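Task card 7
Instruction: Convert sequence to structure tokens.
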Amino acid sequence: MFKKFLVVGSRGDLASKNIVANLLDLGSEGRFEFYLIDGEMLDTKCLDSDKINQYDFVIFASKHKSERKEKTISIHSPGNFREVWGGGEPGKLSLSSALFQKHLFSVLKKTIEDSILTRYLLTMEVTHHGPLIERPSVFVEIGGSEEEWRDKKASFVVAKAIRNAIETWEENPYHEVAVGIGGPHYCPNFNKLQLNSNVAFSHVIPKYVSPITEEMILETINKTVEEVDFVVLDWKGLGKSEERDEIIKILEKNYIQWKKSSDFKT
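Output:
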């Protein structure tokens, strides 16, 4: 499916600069190309859409800022469900590939373990922030403070994982493609499934954007490049029973299959 990959970095983003520098040292061997910008990667206006549209898949190498300053390596799809933070448009998501994100997450886990970078938490994040582009994309981020953005080992591990994920990418038709709904920003229940089950996640809608609407749910499905098999609900992470019932009503109205995260063995 994806043959031409583009890695986007920003000269104004310390973690991004370090990841890209390591990728340059490792070499792309023609498997992917670089696009360095001076502005903010989250802002669609800072990107050359004509250039981006020449590629099949876009990987944004970025910093992650956390108020708790947690040491994380994270991935997520871009898009905004309600208010716009950091670019994009409200209610619109960029395309996401569940299969590539599962593959990248698995490669990141192995690379982190092989490098003994145990002080970092590997996690998915829910779909949030821009840019809004026309090609499937994913953010790979190092967080959550300047200390981590300057961490040479962390940036090397992320660069190596990006390179390995692109080199070893093969579309797997046997994974079950899903959208996640519910839970907190760092997706603990969906993390387990992404790593330890046959389920591959694209977009994730968090509880904090409630009320979760029909438009939100349909946007996640329409902006997943693979056919979505079902939605996975973080049952306890959806709040009151009335909120769960409303989401189920929307899913069944649109003939969308659903399962609870607890239905799977991990």
